[in-house]
Write a structure and sequence with these properties.
Length: about 210
């Protein structure tokens, strides 16, 4: 069945739920950026990110519930499940970073935290746009945006290597341990973003 055949009324509910999930993840990424930029208000932003993560759980639960009840779905059920689950991992990762910042009582954001956050936001912006392209059979643009997420993930890899290397030039082992985990969690978010675009790319190839 071609992708254009998806667009019948009973199928649009799945795409609406995926769009809700994407907006929610984007809200989480932007809230993390606000947390880093306005660090004096980090407690408030942390609570906002926590609420966004909980909302994401509800959206994904609804997607899986509807998948269980659906006889026909616009996309292969396994692909839909992978897409929803992988994208949920992204907001889980964002919440994980925010939580570690609070638990470890980080006194101020590092330059690297700001750089990681911007990469994460850019990745999620690209994913949000890519999800919207699934309806249009625009395979070249989907591929272009997937390549961009891959480029951003490589930037995060390089940033992680530099960041950890710089940490080990300092003499505070507790400080090193805390920031190393936070940096690694940041990089893991970009890995999960790449997982999401891989699923989207596969869906478009299979249904074009």
């Amino acid at each position: 069945m071609g992708l254009r055949e998806w667009l019948i009324p009973r199928d649009k509910e799945f795409f609406a739920l995926l769009a809700d999930e994407s907006r929610n993840v984007l809200d989480g990424a932007r809230a993390l950026r606000e947390m880093i930029i306005n660090f004096e208000n980090r407690e408030e932003k942390y609570k906002q990110i926590r609420d966004i993560e909980h909302k994401g759980d509800t959206i994904v639960h609804n997607i899986f519930e509807k998948l269980d009840k659906a006889f026909i779905t616009p996309i292969d059920q396994e692909d839909l499940a992978r897409l929803a689950s992988n994208y949920d991992d992204v907001i889980d990762g964002i919440y994980g970073v925010a939580k570690r910042i609070m638990i470890y009582e980080i006194p101020e954001p590092t330059m690297e935290m700001g750089e990681f956050t911007e990469i994460v936001v850019q990745c999620v912006v690209e994913i949000d746009a890519t999800l919207n392209l699934m309806h249009k059979l625009d395979q070249p643009e989907v591929e272009q945006r997937c390549i961009e997420v891959d480029r951003l993930e490589n930037l995060a890899d390089d940033l992680l290597n530099r960041s950890v290397g710089n940490l080990f030039k300092t003499n505070d082992p507790i400080h090193i341990m805390k920031l190393k985990e936070i940096y690694e969690r940041y990089e893991s978010i970009t890995d999960r973003c790449e997982d999401v675009t891989d699923v989207i790319h596969d869906i478009v190839l299979k249904n074009a």
